[in-house]
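Appendix B, Record 12. Input sequence as logged:
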Amino acid sequence: MASAGAQASPVLPRGRPAGVGALARRERRLAYRMLLPTFCIVLGIVLLPLVANFWISFKAVELGDLRPARPMFNEQLRPRPQAANEVVTLRYRVRNSSRKEALENLTFTDSIPAGLVLTVLPDGCRLEAPVLTCALGNLAGGERRDMVLPVTVQQTFLDSGVRVRRSKPQAQFETRNVLTSPEFTVANFRKVFSAQEFWSVLRVTLYYTIFGTLGALLLGLFAAQILHTAFRGRAVLRGLFLFPYVAPVIAVAFAWVLLLDAGPGGTFNAMLQQLGATDQPVNFLGRKYIDISIFGWQVQFPMALSTVIAFESWRYFPLSFLFILARMQSLPADMYEAAEMDGATPLQQFWYLSLPQLLGILSVLFLLRFIWTFNKFDDIFLLTGGAAGTRTLTVDVYEQAFAVSNLGAGAAVAVVVFALLLGFALLFFTFSPQDDD
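Logged structural output:
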């Protein structure tokens, strides 16, 4: 039996946390209702393109298939009538706009101008003055068909000055849309994985992503260490360090192209030749490999890819610099003062004090930069166009979808990119250190 002094704990309804009153619950419901439109918009922006990309990846669709099949009409009156009671021909030229999909049960109607008398009607046509209706049946992909009708010209038509093209034929038909059809295929994925260059492109992508991410983090960490110390002009220098990130990518990319040009106008090559570092210009953005000697070993160094990685690291290190500097400024100064009094060198202070405190923000930056670099397209496309061994998966998506016009294969490559990034994110969150509650 419970003691007399013990108080019975309040019994709360199931699922209702203790200490949450009616007012707090109403405020929470109101907050959810106010955020609901934002959630719907974000989900629509994120999920709809993602679902559409998955849908297209299982379709044998090309870029031209985005425009559905429809009949194209050209109406002519030949020869041009000059006198009344003259017999001429009214010609309808019909073409299927699609070269793959057929038009079924094609029927068109057209208004015949006053003063034109149809003398003979072909099979499948009927005239309910002034409307002409003709059934053309099925029209295969890319098929053309001509229909010639003899007509007698009356003076009324000549006096009116009306042209037969004033009224456009109206068509009724049935066709299959490859995007909305229930037919699916895995041919796009078979084509992607069976291609000889896919695995080499994947290796290039991983090489570019890993070293580009690490380069941006290391440069950002180095810059944050320098600008964390107080000195005259530090605020101005911090602003200048943001220039690579805030400058338009087209401007900085073409600036690098001009600097690294292998022609007479290349500034960097001219400096190397003046210093005697090289006898001839180096094609930094157009040469796939360069042979270098390391301790007597001949190694093929990926020249163009390394140049693109250097550009990636230079352009995006300011983001890492800002996050790392903000974290460093929140560290207690007395910790470093005590370490300095104990005789710790600056390197020891960084390794044993700063770095453990920065691991959290560095891991988050690595995740974000890895995903963003893996998805990068504009930097590589502007610098090399994907040539000289710099073709990544995102460049492959563009080439498959727009250069080759195979939209389904491009969507399949995009699905592969999504699966790889999702797997990396899951592994990262699984094995990354978790803070204790």
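Residues 119 and 151 are 6 Å apart (CA to CA).
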